[in-house]
Write a structure and sequence with these properties.
The protein has 2 domains: 42 residues; 229 residues, YmcC-like fold (Beta Barrel). A 12-stranded antiparallel β-barrel has the order 4-5-6-7-8-9-10-11-12-13-14-15. The relative contact order is 0.16. It is an alpha+beta fold. The protein is built from 4 helices and 15 strands. The radius of gyration is 26 Å and the shape is globular.
Protein backbone atom coordinates (compact mmCIF):
# COMPACT_ATOMS: atom_id res chain seq x y z
CA UNK A 1 0.00 0.00 0.00
CA UNK A 2 1.43 3.40 -1.00
CA UNK A 3 1.63 6.37 1.36
CA UNK A 4 -1.02 8.17 -0.72
CA UNK A 5 -3.46 5.27 -0.38
CA UNK A 6 -2.79 5.09 3.35
CA UNK A 7 -3.50 8.80 3.77
CA UNK A 8 -6.78 8.52 1.82
CA UNK A 9 -7.89 5.63 4.05
CA UNK A 10 -7.03 7.58 7.20
CA UNK A 11 -9.01 10.64 5.99
CA UNK A 12 -12.02 8.46 5.10
CA UNK A 13 -11.98 6.79 8.51
CA UNK A 14 -11.72 10.18 10.23
CA UNK A 15 -14.64 11.57 8.20
CA UNK A 16 -16.85 8.61 9.12
CA UNK A 17 -15.95 8.93 12.79
CA UNK A 18 -16.86 12.64 12.75
CA UNK A 19 -20.20 11.94 11.02
CA UNK A 20 -20.97 9.16 13.47
CA UNK A 21 -20.25 11.40 16.49
CA UNK A 22 -22.32 14.27 14.98
CA UNK A 23 -25.22 11.90 14.33
CA UNK A 24 -25.14 10.64 17.91
CA UNK A 25 -25.05 14.21 19.23
CA UNK A 26 -28.07 15.18 17.12
CA UNK A 27 -30.03 12.17 18.38
CA UNK A 28 -29.05 12.96 21.97
CA UNK A 29 -30.10 16.60 21.53
CA UNK A 30 -33.49 15.58 20.10
CA UNK A 31 -34.01 13.18 23.00
CA UNK A 32 -33.18 15.87 25.55
CA UNK A 33 -35.56 18.35 23.89
CA UNK A 34 -38.36 15.77 23.86
CA UNK A 35 -37.72 14.98 27.52
CA UNK A 36 -37.72 18.67 28.48
CA UNK A 37 -41.00 19.29 26.66
CA UNK A 38 -42.48 16.30 28.43
CA UNK A 39 -41.59 17.76 31.82
CA UNK A 40 -43.12 21.12 30.80
CA UNK A 41 -46.38 19.45 29.83
CA UNK A 42 -46.49 17.46 33.05
CA UNK A 43 -45.82 20.60 35.07
CA UNK A 44 -48.34 22.93 33.44
CA UNK A 45 -50.98 20.78 31.80
CA UNK A 46 -51.47 18.78 28.62
CA UNK A 47 -51.02 20.11 25.10
CA UNK A 48 -53.75 19.63 22.49
CA UNK A 49 -53.90 20.72 18.88
CA UNK A 50 -56.42 23.43 19.80
CA UNK A 51 -54.70 24.70 22.97
CA UNK A 52 -53.15 23.85 26.32
CA UNK A 53 -55.28 22.27 29.05
CA UNK A 54 -54.53 23.68 32.52
CA UNK A 55 -56.09 21.88 35.51
CA UNK A 56 -57.58 24.20 38.10
CA UNK A 57 -55.06 24.61 40.99
CA UNK A 58 -56.22 23.03 44.24
CA UNK A 59 -56.18 26.33 46.17
CA UNK A 60 -58.37 28.02 43.55
CA UNK A 61 -60.68 24.99 43.38
CA UNK A 62 -61.25 25.19 47.13
CA UNK A 63 -62.01 28.91 47.08
CA UNK A 64 -64.27 28.70 44.02
CA UNK A 65 -66.25 25.75 45.37
CA UNK A 66 -66.76 27.53 48.69
CA UNK A 67 -68.03 30.70 47.00
CA UNK A 68 -69.88 29.41 43.92
CA UNK A 69 -70.90 25.94 45.11
CA UNK A 70 -69.99 22.42 43.98
CA UNK A 71 -70.53 21.47 40.35
CA UNK A 72 -70.29 24.98 38.91
CA UNK A 73 -66.75 24.59 37.56
CA UNK A 74 -66.19 21.34 35.67
CA UNK A 75 -63.43 19.90 33.54
CA UNK A 76 -60.48 21.86 32.22
CA UNK A 77 -60.65 22.66 28.50
CA UNK A 78 -58.07 23.73 25.88
CA UNK A 79 -57.07 27.38 26.31
CA UNK A 80 -55.82 29.85 23.73
CA UNK A 81 -54.17 33.29 24.02
CA UNK A 82 -56.53 36.25 24.38
CA UNK A 83 -56.65 38.01 21.03
CA UNK A 84 -59.91 39.99 21.01
CA UNK A 85 -61.07 41.16 24.44
CA UNK A 86 -64.50 42.16 23.11
CA UNK A 87 -65.20 38.48 22.46
CA UNK A 88 -65.02 37.78 26.19
CA UNK A 89 -66.74 40.96 27.38
CA UNK A 90 -68.86 42.44 24.58
CA UNK A 91 -69.32 46.18 25.08
CA UNK A 92 -73.07 46.18 24.46
CA UNK A 93 -75.76 47.49 26.77
CA UNK A 94 -77.49 44.64 28.57
CA UNK A 95 -79.26 43.66 31.77
CA UNK A 96 -78.29 40.47 33.59
CA UNK A 97 -79.57 38.57 36.61
CA UNK A 98 -77.12 36.92 39.00
CA UNK A 99 -77.85 34.44 41.77
CA UNK A 100 -75.81 35.18 44.88
CA UNK A 101 -74.22 31.92 46.04
CA UNK A 102 -72.22 33.04 49.09
CA UNK A 103 -71.95 35.91 51.52
CA UNK A 104 -74.53 37.74 53.58
CA UNK A 105 -76.99 37.89 50.67
CA UNK A 106 -76.73 34.25 49.56
CA UNK A 107 -79.89 33.00 47.84
CA UNK A 108 -80.95 36.41 46.58
CA UNK A 109 -81.00 37.54 42.95
CA UNK A 110 -79.30 40.71 41.77
CA UNK A 111 -80.13 42.61 38.59
CA UNK A 112 -76.91 44.07 37.19
CA UNK A 113 -76.42 46.26 34.13
CA UNK A 114 -73.76 47.16 31.61
CA UNK A 115 -74.53 50.69 30.40
CA UNK A 116 -72.81 53.04 27.98
CA UNK A 117 -72.07 56.42 29.57
CA UNK A 118 -72.29 59.62 27.53
CA UNK A 119 -69.22 61.82 27.11
CA UNK A 120 -69.18 65.21 25.28
CA UNK A 121 -65.99 64.20 23.45
CA UNK A 122 -67.67 61.13 22.00
CA UNK A 123 -65.23 58.85 23.82
CA UNK A 124 -66.79 55.59 24.94
CA UNK A 125 -67.18 54.88 28.66
CA UNK A 126 -68.93 51.86 30.10
CA UNK A 127 -70.45 51.40 33.56
CA UNK A 128 -70.67 47.83 34.87
CA UNK A 129 -72.44 46.89 38.10
CA UNK A 130 -70.65 44.38 40.32
CA UNK A 131 -73.58 44.55 42.75
CA UNK A 132 -76.68 46.76 43.03
CA UNK A 133 -74.65 49.35 44.97
CA UNK A 134 -71.14 48.71 43.59
CA UNK A 135 -70.23 50.01 40.13
CA UNK A 136 -67.00 50.00 38.16
CA UNK A 137 -66.15 51.82 34.96
CA UNK A 138 -64.67 49.80 32.09
CA UNK A 139 -62.09 51.55 29.95
CA UNK A 140 -60.74 50.15 26.68
CA UNK A 141 -57.15 51.23 26.11
CA UNK A 142 -55.41 51.91 22.80
CA UNK A 143 -53.59 48.58 23.28
CA UNK A 144 -56.95 46.78 23.33
CA UNK A 145 -57.11 45.99 27.06
CA UNK A 146 -60.19 46.36 29.26
CA UNK A 147 -59.32 48.13 32.53
CA UNK A 148 -61.19 49.21 35.70
CA UNK A 149 -59.84 52.60 36.89
CA UNK A 150 -62.39 53.16 39.66
CA UNK A 151 -65.11 51.59 41.79
CA UNK A 152 -68.05 53.53 43.26
CA UNK A 153 -70.02 52.40 46.31
CA UNK A 154 -73.30 54.30 45.88
CA UNK A 155 -74.76 53.23 49.23
CA UNK A 156 -71.83 54.64 51.21
CA UNK A 157 -70.93 57.45 48.81
CA UNK A 158 -67.34 56.32 48.30
CA UNK A 159 -65.12 56.23 45.20
CA UNK A 160 -62.00 54.05 45.07
CA UNK A 161 -59.43 55.03 42.42
CA UNK A 162 -56.51 52.76 41.55
CA UNK A 163 -53.47 53.97 39.59
CA UNK A 164 -52.69 52.29 37.28
CA UNK A 165 -56.14 50.85 36.69
CA UNK A 166 -57.10 47.28 37.62
CA UNK A 167 -56.98 44.76 34.80
CA UNK A 168 -60.30 43.27 33.66
CA UNK A 169 -59.40 41.49 30.39
CA UNK A 170 -55.90 41.85 28.91
CA UNK A 171 -55.17 41.37 25.23
CA UNK A 172 -52.31 39.03 24.38
CA UNK A 173 -52.29 37.02 27.60
CA UNK A 174 -51.30 33.39 27.21
CA UNK A 175 -52.89 30.53 29.20
CA UNK A 176 -51.18 30.21 32.56
CA UNK A 177 -49.49 33.62 32.25
CA UNK A 178 -49.25 35.96 35.25
CA UNK A 179 -48.52 39.69 35.18
CA UNK A 180 -47.37 41.56 38.27
CA UNK A 181 -48.64 45.04 39.15
CA UNK A 182 -48.09 47.78 41.70
CA UNK A 183 -50.60 50.56 42.21
CA UNK A 184 -51.60 53.41 44.47
CA UNK A 185 -55.11 53.54 45.92
CA UNK A 186 -57.15 56.61 46.78
CA UNK A 187 -60.42 56.43 48.75
CA UNK A 188 -62.63 59.54 48.70
CA UNK A 189 -66.10 60.27 50.06
CA UNK A 190 -68.36 61.70 47.37
CA UNK A 191 -69.83 64.39 49.64
CA UNK A 192 -66.38 66.05 49.47
CA UNK A 193 -64.39 64.33 46.71
CA UNK A 194 -61.62 66.97 46.79
CA UNK A 195 -60.44 65.48 50.09
CA UNK A 196 -58.47 62.22 49.97
CA UNK A 197 -59.74 60.39 53.04
CA UNK A 198 -57.58 57.28 52.76
CA UNK A 199 -54.70 56.20 50.57
CA UNK A 200 -52.20 53.40 50.22
CA UNK A 201 -50.51 51.02 47.84
CA UNK A 202 -51.02 47.47 46.61
CA UNK A 203 -48.90 44.82 44.91
CA UNK A 204 -50.36 41.84 43.13
CA UNK A 205 -50.61 39.49 40.19
CA UNK A 206 -53.19 39.08 37.45
CA UNK A 207 -53.36 35.52 36.07
CA UNK A 208 -55.01 33.81 33.11
CA UNK A 209 -55.72 30.56 34.98
CA UNK A 210 -57.23 28.58 32.09
CA UNK A 211 -60.50 27.55 30.42
CA UNK A 212 -63.17 25.45 32.13
CA UNK A 213 -66.65 24.09 31.63
CA UNK A 214 -68.88 26.29 33.79
CA UNK A 215 -72.49 25.38 34.56
CA UNK A 216 -74.76 28.08 35.99
CA UNK A 217 -78.55 28.59 36.00
CA UNK A 218 -78.31 30.48 32.68
CA UNK A 219 -76.65 27.50 30.94
CA UNK A 220 -73.36 25.71 30.40
CA UNK A 221 -70.40 27.66 29.02
CA UNK A 222 -66.77 27.24 28.06
CA UNK A 223 -65.37 30.09 30.13
CA UNK A 224 -61.89 31.54 30.62
CA UNK A 225 -60.89 32.27 34.21
CA UNK A 226 -58.91 35.30 35.36
CA UNK A 227 -57.67 35.71 38.92
CA UNK A 228 -56.54 38.98 40.51
CA UNK A 229 -54.63 38.68 43.77
CA UNK A 230 -53.32 41.68 45.71
CA UNK A 231 -52.11 42.79 49.11
CA UNK A 232 -50.92 46.00 50.68
CA UNK A 233 -51.93 48.80 53.02
CA UNK A 234 -54.79 51.22 52.47
CA UNK A 235 -55.61 53.43 55.41
CA UNK A 236 -54.71 52.14 58.86
CA UNK A 237 -54.47 48.40 58.22
CA UNK A 238 -53.01 45.73 55.94
CA UNK A 239 -55.37 44.23 53.40
CA UNK A 240 -55.39 41.38 50.89
CA UNK A 241 -57.90 40.15 48.33
CA UNK A 242 -58.41 37.55 45.59
CA UNK A 243 -61.05 38.08 42.91
CA UNK A 244 -62.16 35.66 40.18
CA UNK A 245 -63.98 36.35 36.91
CA UNK A 246 -65.26 33.72 34.48
CA UNK A 247 -65.83 35.09 30.95
CA UNK A 248 -67.74 33.14 28.27
CA UNK A 249 -67.15 34.15 24.62
CA UNK A 250 -70.07 36.17 23.26
CA UNK A 251 -71.72 36.42 26.69
CA UNK A 252 -69.39 38.12 29.17
CA UNK A 253 -69.21 37.41 32.89
CA UNK A 254 -71.00 34.16 33.82
CA UNK A 255 -69.62 33.84 37.36
CA UNK A 256 -67.54 36.00 39.68
CA UNK A 257 -66.14 36.23 43.18
CA UNK A 258 -65.59 39.82 44.35
CA UNK A 259 -65.89 42.17 47.30
CA UNK A 260 -69.50 43.26 47.82
CA UNK A 261 -68.91 46.28 50.07
CA UNK A 262 -66.19 48.78 49.13
CA UNK A 263 -66.35 50.68 52.41
CA UNK A 264 -66.15 47.54 54.55
CA UNK A 265 -63.20 46.17 52.60
CA UNK A 266 -61.10 49.23 51.75
CA UNK A 267 -61.62 51.29 54.91
CA UNK A 268 -62.64 48.98 57.77
CA UNK A 269 -60.90 45.95 56.18
CA UNK A 270 -63.81 43.58 56.70
CA UNK A 271 -63.92 40.77 54.16
CA UNK A 272 -67.15 41.00 52.13
CA UNK A 273 -66.24 38.38 49.52
CA UNK A 274 -69.33 37.25 47.60
CA UNK A 275 -69.86 34.67 44.88
CA UNK A 276 -72.51 34.96 42.19
CA UNK A 277 -73.49 33.10 39.03
CA UNK A 278 -75.42 34.20 35.95
CA UNK A 279 -79.09 33.16 36.09
CA UNK A 280 -80.33 35.03 32.99
CA UNK A 281 -79.19 37.58 30.47
Amino acid sequence: MTNCSLMRDIREISRRLVEDVSSRRRKLFRSLVTLALGFLVLGSGSVHADGVVLPLPAEDQQMITAQLGPGVVGQALPSKPIEDVSLYFPLQEKTMSFLVTAGSKAGSTQTLRLVKAKRPTGKQAWRFQLSPSLTTFIQQTLEGNLMMPSVIDADEGVVVITTPANAFVLKGMAPGESRSFSQTVSVNYLDDPTVQDYSGSLNGTYTYVGTYQVTVPAGSYEAVLFRSRCEGKVGPAHTHDTAYYFFAPGTGVVAMITQEDATAFWIIHIDSTTGKVLSSG
